[in-house]
Amino acid sequence: MGETMPLKGKKALITGGSRGIGAAIVKRLAEEGADVAFTYASSVDAAEQVAAQVRGMGRSAFAFKADQGTSDDVTKVVRDAHDALGGLDILVNSAGVFVTGMVTDLEGDVAAFDRQLDINVKGVVAAVRAAVPLLSDGGRIVSIGTARASSRGAFPGIADYVASKAAVAAYSRVWARELGSRKITVNVVEPGPINTGMAPTEGEIADILKSMSAVGRYGEPEEVAAAVAFLTGPEAGYITGTSLVIDGGLSI
């Protein structure tokens, strides 16, 4: 954290901010001076722990329970966050789910497929649409995608997930054009394997992923959060419509 606190006075909303990458982003933006609001799906205790850590830094923190797969919920929480914070400068779309399934599986879970699209695509669209009229000029929008959406190295069974994240990247490129006149930037951060507890870091699959990585390890949530902090900061005003891959060289 720099002494200058580049995000001092900024108001940020992070969806899916109670755990993993989202929680790391909440804390990093707060460390850099932002007051934060974030959403969580179910764990009140986890959300309150994150909020307490932020308040311990001297920043304001508001935790809102919301269903990211329900557009009305998303729209409402964006407006509630704006009101609680007294403004909105930054929106980070971190909430997401990871559902696998092979195209050859004729008995695949259609409900899970639809739910993944509702959260990973429609929820992001709803958040951005609700935020745009509330965002300050010069604001920032960053969405968390996946490295597999814009690089090689896809694995069988993740097509639906990758496609949902690729859709967000495509939306973001066009949104960057649409919002550029207001100096609002729109970018995507695309992580590879990250040590969040959602993916095993030990075992055969983990060993394969580590061996494919140029640096030989999984990434940490804080490393993704650092990239988000940069893209939401004042030095990134000329970066928009881009996807930043953070995968330790897995895809090179």
What labels would you give this structure?
41% helix; Rossmann fold; 7 strands; seven-stranded parallel sheet; alpha/beta; 7 helices; globular; 252 residues; single chain
Describe this entry's structure for a reader.
- The protein has 252 residues and is of the alpha/beta class.
- The protein has a single domain (11-246), classed as 3-Layer(aba) Sandwich (Rossmann fold), CATH 3.40.50.
- It contains seven helices and seven strands; from the N terminus they run E-H-E-H-E-H-E-H-E-H-E-H-H-E.
- The protein has helices at residues 20-31, 44-56, 71-85, 110-131, 159-179, 204-212, 221-232; strands spanning 11-15, 35-40, 61-65, 90-93, 140-144, 185-191, 243-246.
- A seven-stranded parallel sheet has the order 3-2-1-4-5-6-7, sandwiched between helices.
- It is globular, with a radius of gyration of 17 Å.
- The mean pLDDT is 94.
Would you kindly provide a brief summary of this structure?
The protein has 252 residues and is an alpha/beta fold. It has helices at residues 20-31, 44-56, 71-85, 110-131, 159-179, 204-212, 221-232; strands at 11-15, 35-40, 61-65, 90-93, 140-144, 185-191, 243-246.
Based on secondary structure, the structural category is alpha/beta
Largest sheet: 7 strands, parallel
Strand content: 5-15%
Indicate the overall shape: globular
CATH class: Alpha Beta
> How would you write the strand order of the largest sheet?
3-2-1-4-5-6-7
- The CATH homologous superfamily is named NAD(P)-binding Rossmann-like Domain
Q: Give the % helix.
A: 40-55%
- Note the run of SSEs as H and E: EHEHEHEHEHEHHE
Residue ranges: pLDDT <50 for 5 or more in a row? none
The whole-angstrom Rg is 17 Å
- Count of folded domains: 1
**CATH architecture classification name:** 3-Layer(aba) Sandwich
Instruction: Please count the beta strands (DSSP E, at least 2 residues each).
Output: 7
Give the overall pLDDT as a whole number. 94
